[in-house]
Amino acid sequence: MVEYAWLAPLLPLVGYVFLLALGRRAPEGLVAGISVILTFLSFLVSLAVFTALGSHPDATGAYTFRWLTLGTHSIDVGFQVTHLNALMLLVVSAVSTLVFLFSVGYMHKDERFSVFYQYLNLFVFSMMALVISPNLFQLYIFWEMVGLCSYLLIGFWYFKPEAALAAKKSFIVTRLGDVGLFIGIILLFLSSGSFDYSTVFQAATSGHLGLPWISSAHLTTLAAILVFTGAVGKSAQFPLHIWLPDAMEGPTPVSALIHAATMVAAGVYLVARTYPLFEASGVALTVVAWIGGITALLGALIALTQRDIKRVIAYSTISQLGYMMMGLGVGAYAYGMFHLFTHAFFKALLFLAAGSVIHAVDTQDLFEMGGLGKKMRITQWTFLFGALALAGVFPWAGFWSKDSIINATLQSGHIVLFWFAEIAAFCTAFYIFRVYFLTFHGKPKDEAKYAHAHEGSWVMTVPLIILAIMAFIAGFFNTGLNNYGLEKYLMADSPTGLIGHVYPDNVALMIASVALALLGILVAALMYWKPVISAEKLAQSLGGIYRLSFRKFYLDEIYYRLIVWTGKLIASIVDFFDRYILDAIVWLLGRAGYMGGVGLKYTQTGQVQTYSVIALFGLMILVAIAMFHVGGVF
Amino acid sequence: MALNSPVFPIPTGSLLALGALLFCIGLFGALTRRNLIIVLVSIELMLNAANINLVTFSRLGVNPSLAGQVFSLFTITVAAAEIAVGLALLLAIFRLRKSSEVHDLNVHKW
Fold first, then answer.
1. CB contact under 8 A, B109 and A609
2. Lowest-pLDDT choice from A73-87, A92-106, A281-295, A482-496
3. Are A143 and A234 in contact (CB under 8 A)?
4. At residue A51, what are phi and psi to the nearest 5 degrees?
5. Contact at CB, B32 and A609, closer than 8 angstroms
6. Which residue on chain A is closest to B28 by alpha carbon?
7. Which residues 481-510 of A are in CB contact (within 8 Å) with B?
8. Can you give the residue ranges of every domain in chain B?
9. How far, in Å, are A2, A198, A322 from residue A384 at the CA level?
10. pTM recorded for the entire structure
11. How far apart are the first and last CA of chain B?
C-alpha cells in the first residue's frame, strides 16, 4: 500500500483540474460532490498508508526518479513515506474532507463557489505533496504553492479592502521566513551536495557539513536556524505571527482548513521533518524552544481581550503552535507532533463552530452575540467540546497532548518555559470560555441578529459532530489505554528508535494542569456567565495591561515604525539615486546624441555634387594613407 | 615623307597624361557644372579617359595583344546604354520639376 501513497495528493489535484474544466458556472452540487468524494478517497488512501506502515521501521520507503543532473550533483523528485508523513497525510486529509463538507453550507450561493473549491483542492494537493516530498528541493516548491493558495483563499473576497490587504500581508510576512528557509536549503545543498533528507542528516550528524568559511558545527546551527525561520513564518511564530489574525478576513472554512489544521502545521512539520538537523545543534533546539514558549504566552495574552470571535481563535492557534514548537524545542519530538494531531481536530472544530455562529448571526463581534445556545444546540455543544479540548480539561484531547509537552518542558529542566506554558494554559482556559459564555449564554445583545439565528443544515452540523467526537477521543491515541501507540509509531522513523525524548506521565502535574484550566474556566464563568466580577471594572483597574493586550502589544505598530519606515527610507534613497543620478546619466547620453545629430544635420545639403566632392577627398585621403603605410611609395 | 620611315611611336607617358587630363576635366565638370546634361557629358569624358588608359596599357606587357582595345569597345557599349538610361531619367525629372538644374534637386536636404 505504501507505494501507492502518491494517490493521496493526486486525487485533490484531479479534483482541481476537473473543476477547472467545468468552469465557473458549474452547479454547486456537482462541484462540492466531486470535491468531497475525491478528498474522502484521499483520506481512505492516507488511512490505508497509515495502517500499512505499522510500527515497523523498515516499512517506510522513498520512491524517486532522477529529474536533473547538474555536474556531479543530481536532483530527484518523487515521494517518500515515513511514519511522520503518514500521520500528516491522515490529519490533512481528514480535516480537509470535513471542511469541504462544511463549506457546502457555508459558501452556499456565493458567486464564486466553484472557484472556492478549485482553490481548496489545489491547496490540499500542495499540502499533501509537501508532506510526502523526499527532499528539500521538492518541499520548497510545494511550500511556496501552499503559500500561494493561502494567499488566494485569504483574499477570496478580494472586493473587501481588508481581505485584499490581509492576503497581501500574509504573503509578504511569510515570504520573510521563506527567504530564510531558501538560504538554509542552499547552504545545506552547498555543503552536503544533496537535497535529500537522509544525506543531509548524515552529513550533519557526522560533522561533514563544513564550508571553507565556516565549521561544520556552526553551519549546522546556522542552517537549522534558517530553516526554522521558514517555519516561524509559516507557523505564525513570534515575531512573524502578525499575519495570522489578519488572515481571518478569509471565509471561515478557510480559516479552519489553513489557519488551524494544515497550513500553519507545515512549519511544525518542517521542524519535525528536519529534526536530526536540530538535534545535531543544541543552540538551534534552544532557539526553537524559546521562540515557541514566547509565542505560546504572547498569543494567549493577546487572545484574552480580543472582541472578534475568529481573532480569539486565531490567537489561540498561534499560542498552540507555540506549544508545539516548544515541545519540539525541548526535545519532545513525539509530543510536539501529538499536539499537532489533536490540535488539528479541536481547532478545526472551533473554527467551524465559529463559522456556524457567524453564518447564523452575520457578525463576528462577540459583544453582539449572546444567548445563542438556545437556538443552536449542536453548535453550542460541539463548541463546548472544542473549548474543553483547547483548555486542556481531562479527558479531552488537548489535555493529553498539552500536558505531555508541559511535562517534557519541566522534566528537561526548562523552568522558565514551564511557567510560560502554565500561565498560557490558564489564559487559554479563560479566553476560550469567555468566547463560549459570551456567544452561547447570557442575554442576546442584538435582538435583530438573535431573531435571525438558526442552526445550519446537516452538511454543517455533521462535520461539527465528527470533529467533536475526535476532539474528545484523539488524545487517547497516546495514552496508557493505547499503550502509547502514537509516540511509538512516530519513533519508528529512526533506526535507533529514538527521536527526541519521551517522559513518563506525571500525575501530580496533570492534576495541577487540570486545576489551572478549571480555575480559568471558573474565572471566565464568574465574569461573563454569572457576572460576579465586572469585566469592565477589571479592565479599568488594569488599564495599561489591558490596553497592551487589546492592542496586541503594539507589535503591528512597532513593525510599522521600524520596518516599514526603514523600507521607505531606503526606498527614498534609492529613488533619489535613480531619479537624479542614473536618470541624469541616461538623459545626458540622449542629449549628447541629439545635439550631435542637430549639429551634423547642416552638412546634409541634398546636393549630389557636394557628396561626390566629399567622397573624392575621402578617397584621396585613403589613397594617401595606403601609399604611406601599405605601398611604401613615399 | 618616305614610305619606309619608321612609325613614330607616341610615348606611353604622353598617352597616360592625356588620359589623366581628360579624367580630371571630366571630374571637374561633373562636380561643378549646374546643368545635368553637362554633368552627364562630363561623366562620358571620364569614361573615355579610362578607355584611353585601357588601349595604352594593351601595348605594353610581355604579350602585347588586342584585349585592351576589345575591352574598350565593350566599355563604349556600356556607356551608350548608361547614357540612354541617364537621359531618360533626366527627361523624367525635367517633366516633373520643370528644371534640369542640379541645385534644384535637393529633396534630401535636412
1. no
2. A482-496
3. yes
4. -75, -35
5. yes
6. A613
7. none
8. 35-109
9. 38, 44, 23
10. 0.76
11. 66
**Residues of A with Cβ-Cβ distance to B97 under 8 angstroms:** none
Q: Considering only CA atoms, which of A291, A257, A467, A276 is closest in space to residue A378?
A: A467
pLDDT digits (tens, 9 = 90+) for A578-627: 999 999 999 999 999 999 988 888 888 888 888 889 999 999 999 888 88
Q: Count the neighbouring beta carbons within 10 Å of the beta carbon of residue A438.
A: 26
With beta carbons under 8 A apart, name residues in chain B contacting A604. Answer: 108-110
| For residue A162, pLDDT beyond 80 | yes
Cell of A20: 477547472
For residues A83-91, give the mean pLDDT: 88
CB A52 within 8 Å of CB A165: no
What single DSSP character describes residue B60? -
Instruction: Name the average pLDDT for chain A.
Output: 85
Radius of gyration of chain A (CA): 30
For residues A46 and A1, give the distance between their C-alpha atoms in angstroms, rounded to a whole number: 10
Contacts of A522 (CB under 8 A, 6+ apart): none
| Nearest CA distance, B39 vs chain A (angstrom) | 10
User: How far is B61 from B54, CA to CA, in rounded Å?
Assistant: 12
* Grid coordinates given for A30: 456537482
CB-count exposure of residue A381 (10 Å: 0-12, 13-18, 19+): middle
What is the grid cell recorded at A62? 522513498
Residues in chain A: 634
